[in-house]
Amino acid sequence: MQKLTLEEIKKIIPHRDPMLLVDEVLELEPGKRIVTKFYVSPERDIFRGHFPGAPVLPGVYTVECMAQASDILLLTLDRYKGTIPYFIGINNVKFMSKIEPGDTITIHAKLSSEREEKAIATCSAEVYNGDVLAASGEVTLAMR
Q: Is 76 helix (H, G, I), strand (E, B) or coil?
């Protein structure tokens, strides 16, 4: 099982702060499955407006966490190295529990389907806040 540091992650995906939403890769089987970690810093500017007095991580950020875990999973394959992963679809996304400032979430993603000739892949993902399933869904990416 492979692990990656933040610096190693930055060599794989093009995202940077404030939109880099992966701190560490805890487990990686390229092209098969991945587990990532993200600390939801209370210092993130988004919490000033979402929502004052009762801050919560926006659902679109949670979905982006799923997409970035999937990006790493795919971009560690030789055939996609050096490409940019474009987010082209989401399906069956469900939010079950809120994610608050100060939480550390883990994202589990696995390759569900791939059209190699088109460089398009779909990954299913689950986001856990501790032991609680906070969100799940499928993200589709095009590597270009």
A: coil
> Parallel, antiparallel, or unpaired: how do β-strands 132-143 and 120-129 relate?
antiparallel
106 - beta bridge partners?
A: 37, 128
Q: What is the pLDDT of residues 27-55, one digit of tens each?
A: 999 999 999 999 999 999 999 999 999 99
- Indicate which residues carry an active-site annotation: 50
* 55-83 confidence digits (pLDDT tens): 999 999 999 999 999 999 999 999 999 99
Q: Which of 52, 56, 71, 60 is nearest to 4 (CA)?
A: 71
What does the alpha-carbon distance between residue 14 and residue 21 come to, in Å, rounded to a whole number?
12
Task: Determine if the peptide bond prior to 95 is cis (ω within 30°).
Answer: no
- Domain with 12 in it: 2-143
Total domain count for the chain?
1
CATH of the domain at 82: 3.10.129.10
Helix (H) or strand (E) holding 91: strand 85-95
pTM: 0.97
Cross-strand partners of 124: 110, 138
Distance between CA 65 and CA 3 in Å, rounded?
17
